[in-house]
Amino acid sequence: MSVINFATAEIGALLMVPMCLMAYPLKLEVRAGSLKALTRATCNLVLAFIGFPLAAFFLLKNTLEGFGGVNVGDFWNWVESLWAWNSATYLYIGMVHLPCWVLCIHILFHPC
């Protein structure tokens, strides 16, 4: 991915690597009940939320522009511009980021 778009690969790595390395079933964390386990569970939930592309987009946009005028249409315009520019980010989100995110969510909510 870095050959095509280094910035996309870097941002993806900053989101995906911690999320994938920390994924651990929440049910086991709750059973353990220690402070370490609950801290790890909290980090897992925060990373899973931030790692979802739509949530990450809105958090970034709200941080840069404020919470006033962001809507789903902004996300759709961004996705359309990626498609129109033949950006590798579109491929990265669809073929790397979302499958990794789904796998992490599956691990987090695994019934054990």
TrEMBL record:
<protein>
    <submittedName>
        <fullName>Uncharacterized protein</fullName>
    </submittedName>
</protein>
<dbReference type="GO" id="GO:0016255">
    <property type="term" value="P:attachment of GPI anchor to protein"/>
</dbReference>
<keyword id="KW-1133">Transmembrane helix</keyword>
<feature type="transmembrane region" description="Helical">
    <location>
        <begin position="6"/>
        <end position="26"/>
    </location>
</feature>
<keyword id="KW-0812">Transmembrane</keyword>
<dbReference type="GO" id="GO:0042765">
    <property type="term" value="C:GPI-anchor transamidase complex"/>
</dbReference>
<feature type="transmembrane region" description="Helical">
    <location>
        <begin position="90"/>
        <end position="109"/>
    </location>
</feature>
<dbReference type="InterPro" id="IPR007246">
    <property type="entry name" value="Gaa1"/>
</dbReference>
<feature type="transmembrane region" description="Helical">
    <location>
        <begin position="38"/>
        <end position="60"/>
    </location>
</feature>
<keyword id="KW-0472">Membrane</keyword>
